[in-house]
Amino acid sequence: MRLRNTGFIAFITLIGHVLLNFFRATGELCLFLGETIYHCLTPPFYGKALLRQLIEIGFYSLPVVALTTLFAGMVIALQTYTGFSQFSAEGAVAMVVLVAVTRELAPVMAGLMVAGRIGASMAAEIGTMRVTEQIDALSTLSTNPFKYLIAPRVLAGIVMVPVLVFIGDILGICGGYMIGVYKLDFNASTYLINTWEYLKPMDVISGLTKAAVFGFIITALGCYNGYHSKGGAQGVGQATTNAVVSASILILIFNYILTELFFNV
Amino acid sequence: MVFFKTQEETLLPKIRLSHLQKAFGHKKVLAGVDLDVYPGESLVIIGGSGTGKSVTLKCILGLLTPDSGKIEIDGQDIATLPRKEREKATAHIGMLFQNAALFDSLSVWENVAFALLQNKKTSRTEAKKLALQKLAQVGLKKDVADLYPADLSGGMKKRVGLARAIATNPDIIFFDEPTTGLDPIMSDVINDLIVSTVKNLGATALTITHDMKSARKIADRIAMLHEGKIIWMGTVKELDKTKNPYVKQFIAGSAEGPIKMEIKADKA
To answer: Can you name the residues that pair with B28 across neighbouring β-strands?
Structure first.
């Protein structure tokens, strides 16, 4: 009886520990995000650092995002055709590709890809700066690390991920068009007219809004994990993993929440 | 270097720590540090690893917030100041980090001129000229200026770090284990550089180290930190005459004595 009691108390203690840790981490993250937003909006701004990040995120992620969205558009055309042809509804392929790519595939695919590429490198870079005391050195040189390191990255993420997704939208639809016209033998002009007819600004706008939110999530979590990393190389590795995993999960969760908000039926 | 205390200086220390306390979890790192550093003097804090030397420096710099106690710079209690004021108060502190902490994405001269480039009052060409001057002061030639920190040896990194710390002519300079990781000759070169640059600037210097040779060379006064408290303070001459068993053990570098080394690794 006594043993069972201590076991029970140990179990409750464990739950308490887990919960307290969870709330502590959430609070810490919220404070970090609040400080980040504050420094994004107040001068001084570091234009050169921002430009570097814009190029790093926007330009150098382009090949990865282009490839993934192109193939996503292609595969969705193929799958829609095989599914819809059973009901003789092949004509809907153009519309399904359009809606799927602009609303979901381009933002989510690009978001996950950028999380892997940019989130990881930000966590590793800032994490290394933390463990080699470079962040402390910034403070002693009268430079706020939030302004110099974090704000440019987060701003660049919010601006550049939508740009990437917009390009991804176009390429995804092109992918669908290529499969539709060259493989499934649709009439090219009919396919384009269908696409144009079903194109609703709201679909694209919702996708781009999602992209901006994902850009914030990726860069803020990359910076947060790097900023709070400790304990040398292992700590930096841990920070990198945490940045990518947490950003990917949050992207999928927020994708659902934003879809609910935009297309509440 | 002889240190003279005038009446005025005894009244107003450059840095005054009173009963500074800081704990990490259950581990009390600083258990009430009281320390006065007077203008123009070079104070060295000695002590073993994990006795709270680095934490003391980081508290003064505002990188860590003490749990209790006061930190005064020029008579101003910086803990109670609002953030902007505090940043202003700590802005004229230069710091040489243990591993130099150079920004590896920037070239050597950009590192040295970092503070000048960021406040945007100096043009790039002017900043570079100043950086070259500071590099020359620490014995580095022009051709080093365009290298990156990854291309430098340990001793050169320390010199660049020193040049960066003095670039804005600070009136207080901190040195965090300036000779760690250097060979004996390079250590002595760095010690000489520290003495001469501090003298040239007329700055107040606070050094933490466990290298006794370096401490003797740099210090006007030496303070020993043990288990989060200053347990001894005096000049280099007094150091050799002291009967304090802790200090004697530390100078001798002996495993036998009142100081028991904790085997568990702790953050200093």
So the answer is: B23
